[in-house]
Amino acid sequence: MTKQKMLQFVDVAKEMPEKRAPNLRAQDFDEIYAEYGDAKAAEQSGRCSQCGVPYCQSHCPLHNNIPDWLRLTAEGRLEEAYAMSQATNTFPEICGRICPQDRLCEGNCVIEKSGHGTVTIGSVEKYITDTAWERGWVKPIAPTSERGESVGIIGAGPGGLAAADALRRAGVQVTVYDRHDRAGGLMTYGIPGFKLEKEVVMRRVEQLEQSGAEFVLNCDVGTDISFDAIRGKHDAVLVATGVYKSRSLQAPGVGAAGVVRALDYLTASNRIGFGDAVPEYENGELDAHGKRVVVIGGGDTAMDCVRTAIRQGAASVKCLYRRDRANMPGSQREVQNAEEEGVEFVWLTAPKGFVGDPVEGVMVQRMRLGPPDATGRQTPEVIEGADYTEDADIVIKALGFEPEDLPTLWHETALEVTRWGTIKADFRSHETSLPGVYAVGDIVRGASLVVWAIRDGREAADSILEYLAQPAQVAAE
């Protein structure tokens, strides 16, 4: 009698891929988790209960067919599992690495709620597509026929690349414009290699290039080429610029040397990983080696900064966050990884100012959580008379990101934005106030997740295809 492949969660315990020891992984920027072997991936996939109502799927922004590809993996039908995973997700191997599964699919797994430990969905997702690449199942995009229409995509991050993929599969000509010298956006220059090795991103960019997508890099729209020129050149335009403007911090001494922006710090580190020359790193400005590092913030960017500083050989790394551990926005899994690697979290603290120029310390206010605000979160309150100074040689501000003023930068006042400065776009079609111009990802949502940008890019591609199918509207442009 053939053994039941699924519903093994009672007999088989949850088991994550092996994680390298903290003292070893802190010495390099390689990913910290090993890959599942075939047998282990099948075993862990077989823990799925095959729910009639799969909450993992409904809580995934892409609504991936998770129970189906778990079953196929458990049965050893890996090529079919890959095809099903790729059908709803442009970059499953990237989402498997960097999605906060504990807040999305795995956090809503039924067997997790029953106390048996979640199915390791993210790790299996990563395994499936990594295996597909290794075995040659990932093919270049080959549309059945080419179309004459062209679409200009501004921004080569996850939203723009997901749209480019979908449009090329439909035969549309695609040109992607990006200000950086490599495509990938924050996946390339923002997220450290220990979470997402860069080869994983670059091979997807190469797949798009091989499919006929054109990349115009080192191109700053509004300076090197006008937004109006891009609109004139293409039948439709997609804005997927992301949000890169760092939130400011108003405090005495904030302009001192050694008080740096998180994105500058992470970009420099990632460029070093590519072998680029980075003067700000080489002169020590963005290198934490031997320094006392203080990171301000509690999101995933702050986690990336503290763990990068450890790998650069910092003398000490502390993270200040104004709320407690339970109320921080970053992934709890990332906090655990950081603590294992030697990061100290100083909860309920906020910067009041900075000492010295170059910086020598952070003036810190101790906080407590007061009554809930309108969103239901408890509001941090200052504890009077409890201030102290935290010694620091480099302070990294990881306070989040805001949109740039695109209507001004692009000389297009008709492009409507919200009161937060994000582009105003229809939440279904993603069309903006300008006919034939669409917008997706963080420039619409504000700073968000890669998986949401992928969803937006795929949806916008469908809307653009519908728009291109209306000759009268295209001609009117």
UniProtKB/TrEMBL annotation:
Domain called Dihydroprymidine dehydrogenase: residue spans: 25-136
Domain of life: Bacteria
Entries under Pfam families matching the protein: Fer4_20 (PF14691), Pyr_redox_2 (PF07992)
Keywords: 4Fe-4S, Iron, Iron-sulfur, Metal-binding, Oxidoreductase
Keyword Glycosyltransferase on entry: no
Location of the FAD/NAD(P)-binding domain: 151-457
UniProt keyword annotation of Iron-sulfur present: yes
Name this protein carries in UniProt: Glutamate synthase (NADPH/NADH) small chain
